[in-house]
Amino acid sequence: xxxxxxxxxxxxxxxxxxxxxxxxxxxxxxxxxxxxxxxxxxxxxxxxxxxxxxxxxxxxxxxxxxxxxxxxxxxxxxxxxxxxxxxxxxxxxxxxxxxxxxxxxxxxxxxxxxxxxxxxx
Length: 121
Prior knowledge:
Layout: E1 3-7, E2 10-13, E3 18-25, E4 33-39, E5 46-51, E6 57-59, E7 67-72, E8 77-82, E9 91-100, E10 107-111, E11 115-120
Parallel strand pairs: 2-11
Antiparallel strand pairs: 1-3, 3-8, 4-5, 4-9, 5-6, 7-8, 9-10, 9-11
């Protein structure tokens, strides 16, 4: 059974920092692209940051220069370092892993339940 578990969310003041973690169980992590999404109540889901299996990264314009995505394949964990947080960053943040099985070629896309980030002004 595949699991993605996010952690590290919480309440922080504007300008503060948090580091989110996305821990995976299963043997798919190292070959997966990892995405961090966020969704606030009443708003559309937003892709915040992505990292490929080879370490290439991409960011939404709204977080570029403030957030950093990284991964540690040895620990089956991805991270989202969030600095200079703003109230508009408040949302539920969740990670997803997508790729394809090397034997069957079947594509997969797994997501966790998320961790809440609240930034007070």
